[in-house]
């Protein structure tokens, strides 16, 4: 079994069988079995013992605000049975993402993603600074664009794999707003497109030093995307979109978060639906997908899908990666290095991870407004 499969199994074990790693299980074990379990856990390289962090808070969000039952949630992580009756993996790795070393996993039903958070500055910021405000905010802002985080896992105890960072110590379970893509593909619908959008006007060493000649194309491909089009919205849709962005980014700026991104998904509607929308005498067939891991409030929303004002596309959007905070040690060191670079070598300005929260928010909102075009009646 490979590294990613072992990490995935430790995640599934913590979510589906939480008592397996808990004190209750250990207290019921005989001394020899306990010693063997502790020995195995310490020398484990990839299958770390993971525990849920603040499980009651996330369970309350799922049950009371997102209408997700415990049974349905856990079922998404249970290993499915193949046609041959063999148990398959409950999570599948879908690649390393970005420069943080994070890995993403998807559940078999595609409803949830699990993102590893290996950097101490990021998982400690979420646990110690942002978690309580996030839970309170998401309970009172049902239309928020902040990604819905359903669980937070952290490693328990010491192990060889944790000491030498061979496996990530923390993971975040979140909804997958790409849910439904596989079913759409089976139906023969047009491929869904997606972009991970951040302000590109910042200084990115991988791109801007020596015109990017010192960095591989694969590395540069991991930088933020650019959206070379417009999201066509009605005035009402645009006002709602900008209002959500304003509120959500205000929360992030108040807690020193920077470098978050807007994840944008675009689904092309069938041509017959576009023609039907263009003819006012025809009843429109445009109906954004309603199914998803956590629906309330009912569609249409930016999580389930918003039909564009020109009737050509359905859009989803979510704010991701809000775990980089200016007051943590690693961001402070990066800010110092960039300030030295600007003072001694070239005045290229701040990076997205070294600017102030207020300045990042301003550029982020300006970027989002640039991508929207309001269709006049």
TrEMBL record:
Q: What is this protein called?
A: Phosphatidylinositol-4-phosphate 5-kinase-domain-containing protein
**Which keywords, in A-to-Z order, does the entry hold?**
ATP-binding, Kinase, Membrane, Nucleotide-binding, Transferase, Transmembrane, Transmembrane helix
Query: Where is it found, in Gene Ontology cellular component terms?
Result: plasma membrane
Q: Which lineage?
A: Eukaryota, Fungi, Dikarya, Ascomycota, Pezizomycotina
Question: What are the PIPK domain coordinates in residue numbering?
Answer: 1-372
Which GO terms of type biological process are on file?
A: phosphatidylinositol phosphate biosynthetic process
Which PANTHER family does UniProt cross-reference here?
PHOSPHATIDYLINOSITOL-4-PHOSPHATE 5-KINASE (PTHR23086), PIPK DOMAIN-CONTAINING PROTEIN (PTHR23086:SF126)
Which portions of the sequence form the region Disordered?
273-306
What are this entry's molecular-function GO terms? 1-phosphatidylinositol-4-phosphate 5-kinase activity; ATP binding
Q: Which stretches are tagged as biased composition: Pro residues?
A: 290-300
Q: Which organism is it from?
A: Podospora australis
| Chain segments annotated as transmembrane | 34-53
Per its UniProt record, what InterPro entries does this chain match?
PInositol-4-P-4/5-kinase_C_sf, PInositol-4-P-4/5-kinase_core, PInositol-4-P-5-kinase_N, PInositol-4/5-P-5/4-kinase
